[in-house]
Sequence to fold (557 residues):
Amino acid sequence: MDPNIMQPQSLEMKQDGDKFVIPIGPQHPALKEPGHFEFTVDGETVTGATVRLGYVHRGIEKGAESRSYVQNMYLVERICGICSHIHATAFCQGVEQLAEVEVPPRARAIRTIIAELERIHSHLLWLGVAAHEAGFDMLFMYTWRDRETVMNLLEGITGNRVNYSANLLGGVKCDLTPEIITAIRTGLDFLEERTQHYLEVVTTDAMFLRRTQGIGVMTREQAESLGVVGPTARASGVARDVRVDSPYAAYSEFPVTMVVDPAGDLLARCVVRVKELFECYRVIREMLEHLPEGDLTTRMPRRIKPAETISRVEAPRGELLYFIKSNGTDTPERVKVRTPTLPALASVAEASVGHQLADIPMIISGIDPCFSCNDRMFTINDTRGNDKTMSWEALRQYGIEFYK
Amino acid sequence: MTTEALLDTGRELIAPWTKEIAEPEARRLDAVIEAGDLLAAVEALHNAKWGYLSAITGLDQGVEAGIIEVLYHFCNEAAVLTLRVRVPREAPVVPSLYGLIQSVTFYERELMEMLGVTVTGTPNSDRLFLPEDWPDGVYPLRKDFRMEQLHEA
Fold:
């Protein structure tokens, strides 16, 4: 791969035989986060793809080694602005396992309720982005309007819209009052009705179907071999969900049903995520109905004896894995984070080959990539990266010549 | 299959190459194997379709211990099987899993640039996410990394 892809001169279009390479990004029209993609095309058909990330890398894993467990809880929550609560939950669970501390049932249920509300917010956000990439801006506006409902609920519970800071080591810091429980129920009723409408739209709207049906197909075998997780895997028929496979927090008392679709195309990824929303509404209602009484926190030791642990949770994008090693002090020896976007991005290179260049924005957004999550530690570079790049201007010229 | 049954199957699959094995927590197995046996052990898990490679963790044990541990975490439902490979800190080398698991290149490249572990046979050993002007031979996740190293370089 050209090491100078960030240099302006490398963004020039070059022709290599009949092969063109089209660079997209790091700042690019499809996503609000930076990622650089290079697509090799034969005419309009994509023949290869490479990915390079790292533009929002912040060295959080190294930073975690010089901060106490309490400070780290706030640090890891800032890995991602969308799924912040699930990062903090994974970290807290890991530290609690190391300290051999049992979290009270009410605290586990509240953690789970906030995690499911966060999933609703994340899936609605994604549906809006996908609709926007498909040119369906009305759907985008509606989903993001409705997402405000769940954002307001999260703000009502925790006081924050984004980094909720609901967790403490050993419990949670916010309780659910009868007023907020009523507000959550009202909000869920509204969202459920809206989601019913969205499911109808994404499965029947002819224009949206043209952009999603049969596009970006990833077979079950591909998904399994790439180790893809979360809704992207479940939309390829791989039954993989940490909430079901290895229940944590309150999921053993309040189990969720896995939503699996064997089709593997973009439509399946839409349908799986929208159907998961119904499952979120159902499980939150059930938890509110049977919310355990009792304490919100339990006592945590400040120093953690030397040990290692693995904490896995189901983030909105799939399995999130934390490896934490303690050394007897109040500071971890090592914190390793593997976010779900990483294996999903590998699928972009696989799924885009053979498609029209025009499908690429949908394929990229179809995996619901979260670069900030990923760039905490990864940059990806496909092996087929020896191609030359072509500039936007030259590409424009090419387009003009093409349609003359 | 229950988690215990899954862990038992995993234990049997890697038994020929296991030097030490521990159950650090419920649902987890931690097996120490030699770097030279890594490919054979992973192949056994891969051929039996035992779970998927979820992550690779690099652990620097510090200058005094002189060891870097490379942990390969395989997840299968609730079961997590970790293959632990210990390599000398001065010349850390592990073989690439690319021949078995193509998506592993991301994890391996991160291991190379963050901890300075050489992964032999990996198709692309370019820098992954560190900036292009990051000095050679400076590995940020090693325990003796100092910010001054960046200024010196």
